[in-house]
Amino acid sequence: MTPPVLGFAGLTHLGLVSAVCAAEKGFEVIGFDASGNTQPVSEPDLDRLRTKNAKRLRLTARTQDLSACDVIYVAPDVPTDDAGRSDLAPIDALLEQVFAAARPDAVIVVLSQVPPGFTRRKQRPGRLLYYQVETLIFGRAVERALQPERYIVGCADPAQPLPPGYRAFLEAHGCPILPMRYESAELAKISINMFLVSSVSTANTLAELCERIGADWSEISPALKLDRRIGPHAYLAPGLGIAGGNLERDLATVCRFADELGTDAGVVRAWLANSRHRRDWALRTLHRELLSRHGEPVIAVLGLAYKQDTHSTKNSPSLALLAHLHDFELRVYDPVVTAAASAHPRSHGARSALEACEGADALVVMTPWKQFAALDPAEAARRMRGRLLLDPYGVLDAVRCRDAGFTYYTLGVGA
Amino acid sequence: MIVHAHREPREPVRVVVLGARGFIGSALMTRLVGAHLRCLAVSSTEVDLTLPEAPERLARLLNPGDAVVMLSALTPDKGRDLATVMNNLAMMRHLCAALEKKPCAHLVYFSSDAVYSFASGLVNEETPACPQDLYGAMHHTRELMAKSLAGTPLLILRPTLVYGEKDTHNAYGPNRFRRAAEKDGRIQLFGGGEEMRDHIHVDDVAELALRCLRHRSTGTLNLATGRSTSFHDVARILAKRFSRPVEIASAPRASPITHRHYDVTNLIKAFPGYRFRSLEDGNG
Asked: Which residue ranges of chain B lie beneath pLDDT 70?
């Protein structure tokens, strides 16, 4: 069988990564975006693979070019508002364009994150429409696209076999394929995220207790991962609440459906409240240890992105912190995001982590970029005025930090 | 959570304090006068808010640019019965009637943390109000009455246990402990005094209220320090301040142990760097 030609419509984060990885798997790929451009996306290995597979990856701004495709993924990032509600208008419009341009025998696959019921509403007679769960992780998107754990495919009728071209592409990844009805697949995506949030929320709840009770969460979590009911890959690292936008979208979707349909979402609202509470850990600690004691403190902040290896600042705990530090002088450094993103009236954009430390009373590591681990605490201490260090994610070595004279705070451990 | 209408503080045209002779009212008046603000102190002598003629009398005192601080209330030591509740509600009804005649620029209503139940150990402004007694229910009702005043910028302040030398209420806590230590050389706790509570000094309450007035803040804010202390530790801190020995005694507990802690993140966000008096500092 001739390998299918793949199309990817909407070249934002999800669409671009998926298109590049499909080309890496050896398929001919047409990437469509009406803007004619791709958005800047920072993901490990993405640029290298894009260059390597340039011959198999053709980008276009003309919808009619999609008529050459056997399988077309509709994959724009679906934007959300501050309450986590999706704006479906862009994907609605793009899907209409794809229906108009695709051949009648082409398979159209919705890859974007859509609420349950979306795909069936878009189904039309005579067309092959599917929904496929994406499990993109910011900072690990390429790895996840090349080596998926499984494919979850929403179908109009899961009893019918998948079209050969679509099946050939999925089988090229050597993982289980799970066809199910549209609504199950759409809810499966949300279900995965709900379990992740429940793990993180549980970890955050217990990590806070550790901080007060004299326990150390980093000693507890390995024991939990050896429990088969929890597992070695469980999300047990404490964090500053839920960020990034995608998990929040699913939490909002579950609450909305539960309210409409009369099911209980109390636990989801508790996760949201816990997330808001933990997001402000750094602010509360800074207030207690510095801001309420020092007249004119200078604070060094390392990291603006919502997590490492990404340019995304959506719901970033760092920006949330900076929004409440407008009265104070800041020195800011992030390897990818510029200081201007903080919109802080008194922030100085430093060129390195060490430069950010100059004259600071406190150092706060708000994004766990790997390169911050290379910061020498003794050198940082020499450049700083004060000795307060907040390292929520434990990027730095706690013992070396304390040896350098810092009062060191991290999530899940008392000072 | 509160929102500042004025990002940079501005002096209110005039502050009218209802209940100006009470424990918090006096401290607030002292702070306002100290800050050279134009103020009008109104106590029950000038306008008895329980009386039917109160709306008319109060309206005559008000100007359109006024910030009105409502502190008048019959506190639990004056009675916990239905009649007290109804009198308190009448006072609020009369204030609302006066403000309908003469709208003000800013209304600050002093409520109470009694609007929360003890089901939640950690309280913030998102904690649902769920009063467990008539006093809490009264304050929650008065909050809703204030909210019914369309178009009036409203701030609701919910102070936790307020202490200070001039407190007249003698409720279980620092004020009663200090007096007992002074008079009898003995502080009596219920059980071992294990209950954790947040105690805020009256001068902090006054200072935060002043800042809210200057920013014309609206919304709901708990007035608490974010640091809870057991009654036993409060007694120990107070006992240390006396040169003679003070006995800390235990009496049978009348009710189960409950704890209350405050998440004061919203207060920190509203007033970055605010420094509270500690129990050690505030009991001098």
From this structure: 282-284
**What's the pLDDT at B284?**
46
Residue B232 lies in a domain: no
Q: Which of residues 187-246 of B touch A (CB under 8 A)?
A: 226
Give the global pTM: 0.85
Is B44 inside a domain boundary?
yes
Domain containing residue B88: CATH number: 3.40.50.720
Per-residue pLDDT reduced to its tens digit, B98-153:
999 999 999 999 999 999 998 878 999 999 999 999 999 999 999 999 999 988 99
Q: What angle do CA A86, A91, A97 make, to 5 degrees?
A: 165
Residue B283: what pLDDT? Answer: 58
Q: How many domains does chain B have?
A: 1
Residues of B in contact with A273 (CB under 8 A): 126
Instruction: Compute the distance between CA of residue A199 and CA of residue B236 in angstroms, rounded to an integer.
Output: 41
Look up the domain containing B108 and give its range: 2-164+200-226+263-278
Query: Are B210 and B29 in contact, with CB atoms under 8 Å apart?
Result: no
Among all residues of chain A, which has the CA nearest to that of B265?
Answer: A284
B252 touches chain A (CB under 8 A): no
Sheet holding A407-409: strands in order across? A347-349, A329-333, A298-302, A362-365, A388-390, A407-409
The answer to whether residue B265 neighbours chain A at the CB level (below 8 Å) is yes
Q: Which of A205, A276, A292 to mutate to test the interface with B (most CBs of B within 10 A)?
A: A292
* A137 has a pLDDT exceeding 90: no
Q: How far apart are CA B14 and CA B68, in angstroms?
A: 9
Q: Judge whether A252 and A214 are in contact, CB under 8 Å.
A: no
Q: Indicate if ipTM > 0.90.
A: no
Helix, strand, or coil here: A372?
Answer: helix
Is residue A36 pLDDT above 80, yes or no?
no
| B74 assigned to some structural domain | yes
Please give, rounded to a whole number of angstroms, the shortest distance from the CA of A287 to a CA of chain B.
6
**Beta carbons of B234 and B199 less than 8 angstroms apart:** yes
Q: Is the residue at B156 inside a domain?
A: yes
